Amino acid sequence: MNLQKAPIFVPDFTGRNDTPAIAPVAPRLLLVDDEPRLLSSLAALLDGNGYELTTVGGGHEAITMLARRHFDLVLLDLRMPGVSGHDVMDFINERGIDTDVIVLSGDSGIEAAIGAINRRAYGYLRKPYRHDELLSLVGNALERRRLAAENRDFAWRLECSEKLYRFLIDSSPDIIYTLDPEGRFTYVNRRVTELLGFDRNELIGASYTAIVHDDDLERARYVFNERRVGERATRNVELRLKCADPMKARTFETSLRTISFNSIGMYLNNGKQGTVEYTGTYGIARDVTEKRRTEEVIAYQAYHDILTDLPNRALFRDRLELAIVQTRRKEEELALMFVDLDRFKTVNDSLGHLKGDELLRQVAVRLKSCIRKGDTLARIGGDEFVVLMPELRERSSASVVAQKFLQVLAAPFILDDTTLHISASIGIAVFPEDGDKIDDLIRHADMAMYKVKGEGKNGFSFYDRSLLDAAHDKVLLEQDLRRGFKAGELEMYYQPQIDARTGAVVGAEAVMRWNHPQRGVLPAGEFLPLAEEVGLMVPFSDWMVDSVCRDLRRLRDEGKEAVRVSINLSPTCLMRDNFFRTLTSALEAYRIPATQLEVEITENICIRDPETAIKHLKKLSSFGVRIAIDDFGTGYSSLAYLQRFPVNTLKIDQAFIREIGHADGHFPVVLAVIAIARGLKLDLIAEGVESELQARYLEQAGCRIMQGFLYHKPLRLERFSELLHVQASTPRLGAG
Has keyword Phosphoprotein (predicted)? Predict the structure, then answer.
C-alpha cells in the first residue's frame, strides 16, 4: 500500500487552484543486508510498488544512512559482521528515530526473534519467506504508520480547536452562559466580569435572578428557562441586568436557545425508547446599552431642531395630526400660528450665521415662555416658527398669545457686545373654520403671515377668505406671466431724458411693458415684483439687455444720432458672474459702443453685498458701461460707498420731486442731492417731473436733465425714433 501525503494547494492568480504545490512523496524504505544477492533480490521484489528504495550492505552503513535521512520502514537483516541488526535497532530506539522495522533473518533461534520483538520490531520473517507474505507485511506496516499519523494530526487539530473555542468564548464581546433546569449558572464566560463586575466563579451555582433587574424578572423567567429549539426559540428579548456597581445599569439584547441532541448535548438520551431529558439552557447576552442610547439620540434628533431644541417639522405635523383628531372628536377648536421674524436675513448677512443662530436660540426661549404647557412651539426652518394651540376656547386666546410674542420680541437682544431689535409677522388659522386638514391650516396661517409682511410687519392677523382669492389671483398672474414671456408679449419702451435748457433729447430710460391680451399694456410695477419673487428676473434681464441692444442697433441703422440708454438692473442679476458676459456679448453682437449703455442700480445694493457689487460694477465700468444710482436718497444712503462705487450719474427720486409744490418753497433734500452730485462731479437726472414749477425749481437749483410726464411718457421704439427724427438739434453725448 502506498503512503502518500495530501497535496498542498497554493493560490493561483490566473483563476485556477488545482495545481499541487509539491508532488506526492513516496514512502521511503531502507533495505539492509550483507548478502549482495539477497539484497538485490529484495530490491527487485519491492521495486515497482511506488516506494523510494535505498540499499546498504551492512549495519554500519545503515546507521550512517538513518542518521542522515528519514525512512518510513527499515527491512533489516540480523546477522551482519561488525554491527548487527540488533545494534541498528538499538540505535533507532536510543535516538528516537520515527521509523518501523521488519526483521528478515535466517537465524532460526528463538533468542533472535525475542530480541527483535523486545526492540519493538513491527514484524519478523525468517528467510526464505514468501513474496506475498513480505509484500503484505510491508503494506500493513505502512498503512499502520499512515493511520497513526492521521490520528496524531486529528488529535493535534482537536486540541487546537478546543483551545481556539475556549479562547473565542472567553474573548467574546458577549456574555455566554449555560443554566441547569433550575436556572442556576453552570458556566459563564469572563465577559460577565468585564461588563457587570460579577466574579464569574461566584455566579456558578447561583440563580439567574442574581443579575436580573427586579422589574424585569417576569420576562426573564421565560428567557432563562427556554426549552424550545430552532426558529421557535427566544430571540432578541431585551432585559436590564444588574451590575456589581449599581450605578451602572445596562440593557442587554439576549438571544437564547435551548441546545438539542444534535447540538452540544444539552438534551441527553435517557435510554428509554429514544426519549431525551432536558438538561438546561444555553444563552448569549449582548450589551446594547450604548446602542440604545445612540438610537435614542438619533430618534430625538430626527424629531427636534438641533439649534433650538424645539420640535421640528416632522414632530409638529405628528402632534398637529393627533390634535386635529382629538379636537374633531371633542367638537372644539385649535389655533395654528405661523411666526416669521422680520429682517432676520439682514442680521445673518451683517453679523454672520453664528450670531444669527444665537439670536434664534434666544427667540425660541422667549416664545416658549409665552405658551401654555399643552401648546407646542416648533421651528420648521430658517427664522420660521409655528405654534399649535389645542383646546382653544375662543379666538381671542390666540390673539393674546400673539400679542405676548410681539411684546417679548420687542425687548432688545444682546449678542455678545451687539444689541439688536427684532420683530415678527404672525399669521393665525383656526380649525375647523379655516381648514380641516393639516396642509390647509399651515398654508392659510402662512398666507395670513404674509399679509402682515405686506402691511408693514411687526403684527398679527387671522386668515380670511380674501387672502385665498388674492393668492389664487397671484398664481394665475404668474402662469400668465410665464406664458406671456414665452409668447413674446414683453416689450421695451423708452422714456426720453430732456435737457431743460435746450429741450433736446439727451438720453432715455428703457422700461419694460407687458402687452397682456386681456388686461392691456401693464407697467413694470405690476409684474416685475412677481417676476423677482418667482425667479424670472434673470431670464427677463437677459431678454431686456438683448432687446435694448437690438433697438439701439435699429436706431443706428436708421441714421439716428446716438443717445445714451439706461436700463434698470436687479441686484439678483448684477450679482451673477455671467451677467457681464451676457451684456458684453450683446453689445458686441449688435456693434453698440459700451458708452451708449448705462446701468441703473438702487443704492440698497450697497448693504447687500457691497464688495461683490463693487467688483462687478468696476468690471462694467472698465468696459465702458456707465453706472447710475437710481432712487438716490430713498434707501440706505452711504457717501462712503458712493465714493467707492464707479458711479457716473445720480437720479433724484420722484418722491422728492413731488414735494416741490410752490415756487417759494425750500426743499433741502433735493438741494442736498444736487450738491452731492456737484461735489462728486457726477451727472444728475431728476425723474418724475410733472409740472413747469418743478422743472423751473430744479433748473434754478442746478439740475438740467429731467424726465417725466411733463415732457414725455415712455414711448414705443417707433415713437421714440420719430421723436429723435424731429429734433431740431441734439447736444453732444453727455452734455450737461
Answer: yes
Local structure of 655: helix, strand or coil? helix
**HEC secondary structure over 582-596:** HHHHHHHHHCCCHHH
Lowest average pLDDT, out of 155-159, 164-168, 200-204, 511-515, goes to 164-168
CA neighbor of 435 nearest in space, from 522, 338, 345, 503 = 338
DSSP letter (8 states) at residue 341: E
Give the domain CATH number at 39: 3.40.50.2300
The pLDDT-based confidence of 20 (bands split at 50, 70, 90) is: very low
Helices (H), 517-609: 528-533, 537-557, 571-574, 579-590, 605-608
Examine residue 160 and state whether it is found in any structural domain, yes or no: no
Count helices and strands in the chain by DSSP H and E runs: 26, 28
Q: Are 532 and 570 in contact (CB under 8 A)?
A: yes
Max CA pair span of the chain:
161
Claim to verify: residue 56 and residue 133 sit in the same structural domain? yes
**Confidence at residue 14, expressed as pLDDT on a 0 to 100 scale:** 36
Query: CB–CB of 608/349 below 8 Å?
Result: yes
CB burial class (10 A; 0-12, 13-18, 19+) of residue 723?
middle
Query: Based on the domain organization, do 638 and 717 belong to the same domain?
Result: yes
Q: How confident is the model at residue 375 (pLDDT cuts 50, 70, 90)?
A: very high
Write down the pLDDT at residue 350. 78
In terms of domains, do 107 and 204 share one?
A: no
Same domain membership, residue 629 and residue 491: yes
* 233 & 194 share domain: yes
CATH number, domain of 225, equals 3.30.450.20
Structural domain includes residue 164: no
Q: Look up residue 636 and give its three cell numbers.
A: 440706505
Same domain, 528 and 629: yes
- Surface-to-core class of residue 107, CB atoms within 10 Å of its CB (0-12 exposed, 13-18 middle, 19+ buried): middle
54 touches 29 (CB < 8 A): yes
Decide if 626 is inside a domain. yes
Choice among 136-140, 513-517, 571-575, 622-626 with the minimum mean pLDDT: 571-575
β-strand partners of 207: 184
| Confidence check: pLDDT of 142 > 70 | yes
Q: Is residue 522 part of a domain?
A: yes
pLDDT at 257: 31
Q: Is the per-residue pLDDT at 610 higher than 80?
A: no
CB neighbours of residue 501 within 10 Å = 12
Question: Considering its fold, how many domains does the chain have in total?
Answer: 4
pLDDT of 165: 77
Final residue of a structural domain among 87, 120, 151: 151
Which residues lie closer than 8 Å to 357 by C-beta, 6 or more apart? 307
How far apart are the C-alpha atoms of 252 and 241, rounded to whole Å? 7
**Residue in the structure block whose three cell numbers are 434666544:** 362
Please provide the DSSP assignment of 251-301 as one string.
EEEEEEE---TTTTSSEEE-SSTT-EEE--EEEEEEE-HHHHHHHHHHHHH
Give the residue-averaged pLDDT of 395-424.
Answer: 90
Are 212 and 133 contained in the same domain? no
Q: What domain range includes position 426? A: 303-463
Provide the whole-model pTM.
Answer: 0.49
